[in-house]
Amino acid sequence: MKFYDSFDCIDGKSYIVVNNEIATEISQSFIDMTEYSKEELLNKNINELFSILKIGPSIEIENVDGEKEYFLFTKSLDARFVNITVNEDTFEKVYVFCEKKNLRLDVKLPAVEALLSHDVLGIAIFSAPDITLLRANQTYLDFFDKPFDRRENSIGKKMHEIISGWIGSSSEDIWRNVLLTQKPAYIDEYMFKFERGVTYWEVSLAPVFENGIFKYCIEITTDITEKVLNRKKLEEQAKVIEQQNEQLKMQANLLNFSREAILAWRLDGDIIYWNKGAEEKYGYSKEEAIGYNGHELLKTVFPIDINNIKSILLREELWSGEIEHTRKDGSKLIVETRFQLIVDEKGFQTILETNRDITERKKIEEELRIQNQIIKQQKEQLEIIIENISEGLTVVDKNGNYIMLNKKVAKYTKNTTLLGRALEKVGESLEAGERYYTETGEIITLDDFPSMKVIRGEKVENQMVVVKHGDNNIYFNFNATPVFDDMGEVRLGIIICRDVTERVLYEKHIKEQKELLEKAMEMKDDFLSVISHEFRTPLNVINTAIQTLNFVYADQMTDKIKDYMRTIKQNTSRQLRLVNNLLDITRANAGSIKINKKNIDIVFLTKAITESVYEYASRKKVRITFVSKLAKKTIGIDDEKYERIILNLLSNAIKFTPAGKSIVVSMNSLKGNICVKVKDNGIGIPQDKIDIIFEKFGQVDSSLSRQAEGTGIGLSLVKKFVEALGGSITVESTFGKGTTFIILLPDEMVLEEQNEKLMVDFMNDNRLVQITNVEFSDIYL
């Protein structure tokens, strides 16, 4: 019976049972309410499940308020209004969902539902105060940019998630005012920019209250973009007509209202006429200018002497050029000017000056000149770079003619006269006897050469070409990219080649050295295997002799002899442990670790292994505790390898844990795996040493090895054994505070021909005691 079976509150209700934050059970009532299948919701994290259901508003899973009204969305995106209560014990939580009767939107707001179904006006219902979209028709959704014009991408989302740029906009201000005042709002012409462009809306926002509380807000929206744009177009046309009328008025008095500066002066320089264009250009009024010497007023800078200009006018009546003036505010003005001599019937001479402002044009011209100069410099720099890069660079046109090549290419080809020549002629420029091959020794034809591929529109990436010249091979790496015109035809081909001979020869040398090293390592492993087997024979003889002496002559041995016998026994076990580790290492390197999996209760097995070392721990005044969230768990495991793994970790933990501290062995289920942790409060491992502890012969510190002797191959074997069992092992450690080894093993069983091995046989088997004695043989030296 589960703890929640007795809760009256869930009988016939919609509920979810959660274990370790994972949904393990879902009631049929909940399935019926949400329209999701059990397969879509079971075994999901509670956070992910709440996200799928889009539960709101602003729910905190750890602080669910049973009195508060929440909403969730069905698979068909209909809103349901519920109260959520949470019941829990140590390992499980039950989330109970009670849907409020007659609170569905189509029941509470039938008139709005009718408008929604007509789909003429844009209608939407939002929750208050968090502005979550609860329901909307397609006409309303069509206002939004993709993908939020579809229900599945917008229902259940807040306004700022649907409309980019909503936060900080005037629309947010309107909504905030409605939420604050709880009064309706109407906007007859609201502008908003979407990705598709500017739109104009007619919007009404109407609050809806329940029991005096502002619960919903209904938005009725009409797209008036076309109407507004037509109105604006008419307004712009009216402005154009008005401007045209103004131009007609200006043409009636051209000289006075010309935007060009027009003035007249006598030969002595005094101004006698000053139009409005001159007033605007120079900042001087007519009253300020007339009667004043124009050249002194405007501080005119002429390209030639003013007297020469007067002479030209007297002779030719016309002069034009560029001059510089100074405005009243002191700013400079460059004008394109025209001086014309006018003589009336009385012989009175006047000079008419017409000035066109070309300041901006001259500025642009100067900027263009500077920019062209920069481009020229950049081009020169680029040419220098291209000529001196380490790679060979070639450019060919669509017909296969060389139109550019740098010095490197010329060096490779021994020729600098390739420009304008076709690819087929390249062979003439290369030294006689050269052939082209792939890395595997196949001949590369002209059609397969990178230069020919690129003019066919193919892209070449890292094509290796071997040039055989006599007894020498030169290795080139080619990359080529076609450049296409607007019609999709090849316009140019850019080819880059690099001489990689040194790199290739170096890699071949390294490969040969690696193969020699692997052979040497293999010979070393064979030697260690033979030596280790040879060591085991005398060790077994010594162990047999010790057992015989202890069994037959125990009463005849003095205490001193017994102490020597224990020392011999312990050192024999240490030697046997070393030999076993060496044998296992050589087997692991050869990939021949034999795994014999049987279906065994791993909880019982782990507990038995932990209890077998209590005596060793107690002698060192270290406390060992076994904790498991699983009462029983049967999986496929090689019990002998698993014993070696746990005993090695416990041996290390006891070695490096000071007296008075503790070691905890814990177990639990984790995402399809069985998680076993061995945690101690020992000396810990420095962060810069964690990566080497699983390496063969890797030790954290020589000072530590003096405290507890060892070869450093124990954890290497542990890692290989765990991986051979299909699992993984990691370590977490804080130097000076302790270390935790974490083992993950697959939660799966294997097919067995015989019945599962009984744990009672394991307890009666003396093998665990023998393995423990061997693994802990060096703990007290």
From TrEMBL:
Residues 319-370, 458-512 form the PAC domain. The gene is todS_5. The lineage of its organism: Bacteria, Bacillati, Bacillota, Clostridia, Eubacteriales. InterPro entries: HATPase_C_sf, HATPase_dom, His_kinase_dom, HisK_dim/P_dom, HisK_dim/P_sf, PAC, PAS, PAS-assoc_C. One of its GO terms (molecular function) is ATP binding. Residues 530-749 form the Histidine kinase domain. One of its GO terms (cellular component) is plasma membrane. It catalyses: ATP + protein L-histidine = ADP + protein N-phospho-L-histidine. It is an enzyme of class 2 (transferase). This is histidine kinase. Residues 247-321 form the PAS domain. Keywords: ATP-binding, Cell membrane, Coiled coil, Kinase, Membrane, Nucleotide-binding, Phosphoprotein, Transferase, Two-component regulatory system. It comes from Clostridium chromiireducens.
